[in-house]
Recover the amino acids of this structure.
């Protein structure tokens, strides 16, 4: 869209007083600031809960390691990601039909009310966990409304020569929110676990009032019938796949993971079949939800393929680095397990800094010099950082770790902003809501897939080596052979989640049976100290990390290849 066209399009009356009087040039900055706040709020909540899990489980009096309770933990994390992955396309298409601003503003309302409900959890134990999971789903619906329409609102408001800069700021607001949430969650949960939900309420109220007063519909609505069959088959198919992944990384019977479970296999096969049916439906209905014709545009297709692969590579990184820091590096450097979640967030700040430095700058420069060099170059930097992480020892010098994760953030920022601009600029104006939703679906699905993929790869690496190391290490400290063998036979997922939650894994393994209490004081002190478990798991964990980071590097290279194959933008 040219500058005169953008100015002309901005002429309709505003939805509220602030927007009504705003000239076109001022309106675009109002739209950018509000949608960036909305995206930051929506994504900060996908990570703020991750780092606050120990405090949340203590607050609702629930033992996460009791039989069956790991499901609560996983659904607290995965439920939000699953809903946002499934709904953004539907809500983006709905924005095209009824108005993007209308759906976006409603998202602020839903998100804020759900945050308020989460902070007033009235129950404890399993009932308290179900309350949180249920309202997290509602919160994710509001977040999906924000995610699905923010990029389309900005694409409408900004001329082509400034679009990369605007979408870059918006995208980096979203990505940085994921990592700032780690630090924010650590700080707030140290005060009160409910504060991780309280913090959204005043921001949400302010953002809601501001959005209703300042944002307006610039693009013409596209009245259409809702594609019910397409919506249903996509939601059920995508949901079945992501739910199956959630259960696949949990233990099943005597297996370390659940990929052989009939329920998981049925969900994977059934979900894939439903998505095939969805694709067939979309080619036959007159007004489809998912405009498959957009994939004839090479720029749109290459951008989304690169986004999916990069999202898979990036999504699991957060979990791997948290486990690495909390379970091994921080205890080895004198930090208590209980304090490790907060410090892990702080030590990952260079990753956020890389996003914040590279994102807006690359977005603005790509408006002038084109996107391909930034997107492909950024993905190569991104992949190189994984190769660097492969070379680090488990007990690394922090300066080297900080430099590598900052390079990872810089590469991701270089790619994300120009790629978003290229995708959104390559589609007709009347399909921008659907295109924005499709872009978000690939990105959010990649996050969910990455957790399943990388977590499974890590567990496979641990399952081959951890039992032997654990058995011999426990026996060396006087643990009876039977108790040591039992602890070594437990699924590695319990050990990994202990480290993830900032709990000494030895207490999780030996505490419930009373074995730990019967040992001599010296052996008990060694087992529960800060060095025994990190030294014990270092070898097996590094083996798992090699598999994970090598896979991430390969996915980054594939994403760079897809990005390099894009053509010139063709609206």
């Amino acid at each position: 869209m040219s500058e005169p066209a953008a100015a002309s399009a901005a002429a309709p009356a505003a939805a509220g007083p602030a927007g009504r009087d705003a000239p076109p040039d001022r309106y675009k900055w109002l739209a950018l600031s509000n949608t960036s706040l909305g995206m930051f709020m929506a994504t900060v909540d996908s990570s703020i809960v991750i780092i606050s899990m120990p405090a949340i489980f203590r607050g609702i009096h629930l033992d996460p390691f009791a039989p069956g309770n790991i499901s609560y933990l996983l659904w607290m994390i995965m439920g939000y990601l699953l809903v946002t992955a499934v709904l953004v396309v539907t809500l983006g298409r709905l924005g095209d039909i009824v108005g993007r601003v209308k759906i976006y503003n409603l998202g602020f309302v839903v998100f804020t009310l759900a945050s308020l409900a989460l902070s007033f959890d009235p129950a404890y134990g399993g009932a308290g966990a179900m309350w949180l999971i249920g309202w997290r789903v509602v919160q994710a619906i509001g977040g999906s409304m924000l995610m699905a329409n923010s990029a389309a609102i900005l694409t409408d408001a900004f001329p082509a020569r400034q679009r990369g800069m605007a979408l870059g700021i918006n995208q980096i607001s979203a990505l940085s929110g994921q990592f700032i949430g780690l630090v924010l969650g650590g700080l707030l949960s140290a005060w009160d676990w409910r504060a991780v939900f309280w913090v959204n309420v005043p921001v949400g109220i302010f953002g809601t009032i501001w959005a209703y007063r300042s944002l307006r519909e610039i693009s013409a609505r596209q009245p259409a019938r809702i594609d019910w069959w397409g919506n249903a088959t996509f939601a059920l198919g995508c949901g079945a796949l992501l739910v199956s992944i959630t259960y696949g990384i949990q233990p099943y019977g005597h297996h370390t993971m659940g990929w052989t479970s009939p329920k998981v296999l049925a969900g994977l096969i059934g979900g894939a079949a439903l998505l095939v049916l969805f694709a067939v439906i979309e080619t036959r209905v007159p007004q489809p939800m998912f405009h498959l014709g957009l994939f004839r545009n090479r720029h749109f297709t290459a951008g989304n393929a690169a986004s999916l692969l990069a999202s898979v590579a990036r999504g699991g990184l957060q979990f791997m680095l948290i486990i690495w820091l909390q379970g091994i590096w921080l205890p080895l450097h004198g930090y208590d397990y209980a304090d490790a979640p907060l410090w892990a967030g702080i030590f990952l700040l260079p990753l956020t800094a890389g996003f914040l430095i590279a994102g807006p700058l690359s977005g603005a420069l790509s408006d002038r010099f084109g996107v391909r060099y930034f997107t492909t170059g950024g993905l190569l930097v991104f992949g190189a950082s994984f190769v660097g992480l492969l070379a680090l020892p488990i007990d690394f010098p922090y300066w080297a770790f900080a430099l590598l994760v900052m390079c990872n953030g810089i590469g991701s920022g270089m790619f994300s902003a120009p790629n978003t601009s290229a995708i959104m600029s390559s589609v007709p104006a009347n399909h921008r809501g659907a295109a924005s939703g499709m872009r978000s679906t690939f990105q959010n699905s990649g996050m969910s897939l990455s957790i399943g993929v990388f977590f499974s790869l890590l567990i496979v690496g641990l399952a081959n080596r951890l039992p032997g190391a654990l058995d011999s290490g426990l026996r060396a400290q006087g643990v009876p052979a039977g108790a040591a063998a039992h602890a070594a036979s437990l699924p590695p997922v319990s050990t990994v989640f202990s480290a993830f939650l900032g709990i000494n894994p030895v207490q999780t393994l030996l505490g419930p049976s009373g074995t730990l209490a019967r040992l001599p004081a010296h052996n008990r002190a060694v087992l529960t100290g800060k060095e025994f478990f990190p030294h014990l798991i270092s070898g097996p964990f590094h083996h798992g990390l090699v598999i994970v980071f090598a896979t991430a590097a390969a996915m980054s290279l594939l994403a760079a290849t897809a990005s390099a194959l894009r053509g010139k933008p063709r609206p």
